[in-house]
Amino acid sequence: MRILVVGAGAVGGYFGGRLLEKGVDVTFLVRKRRKKQLQERGLVIRSVHGDAVLNPKLLVAGESAELFDVVIFSNKAYHLPEAIRDVKPYVGEKTMILPLLNGMAHMEILWNEFGKENVLGGLCFIETTLNEHGEIAQTSASHDVRFGEWSGERTERVLALEQLFSGCNARFRLSEHIATDMWNKYLFIATMSGVTTLFRAPIGPIRSGKYGQEIIFGLLKEIAAVMRAHGAPIADDIEEKQLAQLNRIEATMKSSMQRDMEKGQLIEADHLQGYLLSLAEQYEIETPLLKLAYHNLKIYKYNRRKPMQGVARL
């Protein structure tokens, strides 16, 4: 089974690299600059689960290649239109599409582009980033992928994927409740990214502050209310469970959105918090904390685009 991973960044490079390390037939669809970097240095993983230096097969959009059996989308949401355009020549009628993006807004886009029957549900849990050398730095215990049919069925094709993924140095798990898993993660990541970017701090000092628990739980409740109004399959007590989870994780944990902000990079504010706010407006649900978190992210985006005074933008 041939796999095409869209991107060789922090997420795709890590999980694709772990599959390649096992001996799976993996190709990475990358930009020319990343291709040159990988050809010169290799795909380098620095991880608490063990380091690896790999020499992957690389593909740049427009180059010829046979159709792939699986396409893993590991890109950021703001690159999704470009990624879909680049990957289409390598997708056949039976190609499985496995997205590892955060949130839910991308699912309908992928269904429309590739057909709902070809798109699996998927998500990942990992704390990882690219360092200044283009190496993948993975620093937490979690390096997990969940995948499954949207219907929850254990079909022949996902069982074949389960077998293909087994035994690699990362945890790939077939889920019979992937829609619930994805909505649960969306609640967690929207809350985690919301508070860590708002306060510019890892989760530890936020949750231990005088009003930390109240703020975190309040945001969880707002987002969960929006999701329930939309018909998301989340549990009645999910807010309490996720607050407990946020209180258990390492105090130094940062959200990936916070790390992107620290680097001055693009962020997924519209895909995550913005999409939830559009649902809140649709169902007429008040979400003051979610609005605050989103407004902060939009101010970041404004400041990121604003040129420095007295310096011409060329």
TrEMBL record:
Pathway: Cofactor biosynthesis; (R)-pantothenate biosynthesis; (R)-pantoate from 3-methyl-2-oxobutanoate: step 2/2. GO terms for cellular component: cytoplasm. The keyword Oxidoreductase applies. It catalyses: (R)-pantoate + NADP(+) = 2-dehydropantoate + NADPH + H(+). It comes from the Bacteria. InterPro entries: 6-PGluconate_DH-like_C_sf (IPR008927), 6PGD_dom2 (IPR013328), ApbA (IPR003710), KPA_reductase (IPR013752), KPR-Related (IPR051402), KPR_N (IPR013332), NAD(P)-bd_dom_sf (IPR036291). Keywords: NADP, Oxidoreductase, Pantothenate biosynthesis. Residues 178-299 form the Ketopantoate reductase C-terminal domain. Residues 3-151 form the Ketopantoate reductase N-terminal domain. GO terms for molecular function: 2-dehydropantoate 2-reductase activity. Gene3D superfamilies: N-(1-d-carboxylethyl)-l-norvaline Dehydrogenase, domain 2, NAD(P)-binding Rossmann-like Domain. Its EC number is 1.1.1.169. It is an enzyme of class 1 (oxidoreductase). GO terms for biological process: pantothenate biosynthetic process. Belongs to the ketopantoate reductase family. Catalyzes the NADPH-dependent reduction of ketopantoate into pantoic acid. NCBIfam families: apbA_panE (TIGR00745), PRK06522.2-5 (NF005094). This is 2-dehydropantoate 2-reductase. The lineage of its organism: Bacteria, Bacillati, Bacillota, Bacilli, Bacillales.
